[in-house]
Amino acid sequence: MSSKRSGVFYGILIGVVSMVTGMVIASRLDLVPRSLASITVPATNSAPLTGTLDASTFRTIAHEQSPAVVSITVEGMHQATPEDMGGLQFFFNGQSQGRRGGGGANQQVPFAGQGSGFIIDKSGYILTNNHVVEDADKITVKLASMGDPEEGLAAKVIGRDKLADVALIQLTEMPTQPLAEAKFGDSDQIAAGDWVMAIGNPFGLSGTVTVGVVSSVGRLTMASQSADGTSARFEKMIQTDAAINPGNSGGPLLNIRGEVIGINTMIYADQQGSGNLGVGFAVPINEVHALLPMLKTGKIVRGRIGVTVERKPLKADYRKENGLPATGGALITSVDPGPALDGGMKISDFVVEFDGKPVADDGDLVSLVTATAPGTTVPVKVIRDGKPLTLHIKVGELDLAQETGEASARPNMPIRQRPQQPRPDAAPKATAFGLTLRDMDTSLAQQLNLPDTTTGAIVWSVEPRGAASGVLVRGDVIVEVNKKTVKTTDQAAAALEAVPAGGTANVIVLRNGRELLILLRNTK
């Protein structure tokens, strides 16, 4: 998983996934026309999980719930792209040139694959992962009661959502026998240590049952990454050690009552792409439950305010130095044109409450904005310069495809060619945090597509093992350090060198034409 500091949140989002995934989220996603059939959204059983385990507990769950689990095979064409999830792999058992990195960047290649799903309505509605059916021209579903020689039943996509990686499909030909339906549990009740069962189609072995425990809840995982490589969407997942492998994608994760509490989505894999390593992730079913009515219409609508948030937990001394609460909150690291900027939000604002609800962390803020209807004006409480302030922000709607396109259109900001020999008074200067800086000038500003009048200290190089490695990059322009505007290399160097050992520098840089807050901790 990526350990980078910032995630896409709303405007650059991408943002999961943010799953992951930075971050406010909304999408209008190549969806098929509305289905005319009715669908009954399964009720959630929120009764407390009680009772004891015995020798027949898991046998009973497998017997009663397996009939609702299906195997899904797909065929289609997609663009050839090398697969690189940084250790996280969707466990869709697909095969194609493109998925293995063959072919040109724009080449369309055939693919075929297998996944899992589960029936939620007797009229043939099935939940699975978006990545199982994305780009599929043909979808075939096999029920648990069908033998290997049987061909399966045809199905079509009703609605899908890339961000949550969930899709609703429907059988277009029905079996003679009534369909079994899965039951929904309450994923908010799940805690680390709870027993769970996964049922699915790993490696094409339909009806496979595995058992384990919940390893963690609310685990942030990267759902997708922006085309410019600078940000990611993150989603909160249920982590489990129940064995799940390629082909388990879209299958249910069940509690000890046999109720679905998650959709199995991805695994952590080694560089060899091995199967189960005991670290798997499932989309919480409560999130999916809320999406179902929109999935049926073929359009997912989420809120957007256009900010990026700090992904790493803030240390206690940083909170104290900056007048922030000891716990909770989300630090704003950039603000794009849009709802948040229009509402008066600024870089370094610390959000502690959104629409009357406390913000526990950055992921909490994502979830709260996601659940807010576009067009709604909400109060947002922030801490600014150590003092509380309430803003009123009108939430917008995010078009995921459009924002991804904008991200890919923005250039990376390396200096494209080494400029002429710098003047003696503008020579690069080594300073704290392993940085070498030099003054901006008109030539450099033009190379970076910045106004000729831009001032500040440009990052000339970053020591590979320095404190700024992996955080600042060549071409970043430092314009502020610890609330002080800097116009020259000397000013930036002096401000950075003044940060005590163990302290943190709040550095605002220009990157890709946007202002971005970077936290640099002095580890010496």
Q: What does this entry look like structurally?
A:
There is one protein chain. By secondary structure, this protein is mainly β. Among the domains are: 303-401, PDZ domain (Pdz3 Domain, Roll); 424-521, Pdz3 Domain (Roll), CATH 2.30.42.10. Helix content is 13%, strand content 36%. It has nine helices and 32 strands. The strands form six sheets. Strands 1, 19, 20, 21, 22, 23 and 24 form a seven-stranded antiparallel β-sheet that branches. Strands 26, 27, 28, 29, 30, 31 and 32 form a seven-stranded antiparallel β-sheet that branches. A six-stranded antiparallel barrel has the order 3-6-7-10-9-8. A hairpin with a 7-residue loop joins strand 12 (195-200) and strand 13. It is elongated. The two termini are 27 Å apart. Residues 1-37, 83-88, 95-104, 223-234 and 407-424 have low confidence and may be disordered.
Radius of gyration: 25 Å
Query: What is the number of E strands?
Result: 32
Instruction: List low-confidence stretches.
Output: 1-37, 83-88, 95-104, 223-234, 407-424
Number of helices, counting only DSSP H or I runs of 4 residues or more: 9
Q: Please state the overall shape, judged from the principal axes of the Cα atoms.
A: elongated
Measured as a percent range, the helix fraction is: 10-25%
By CATH, the topology of the domain at 303-401 is Pdz3 Domain
**Share in β-strands:** 35-45%
Question: Structural class of the secondary structure composition?
Answer: mainly beta
From the 3D coordinates, which CATH architecture of the domain at 303-401 would you assign?
Answer: Roll
Mean pLDDT reading: 80
CATH class categorisation of the domain at 303-401: Mainly Beta
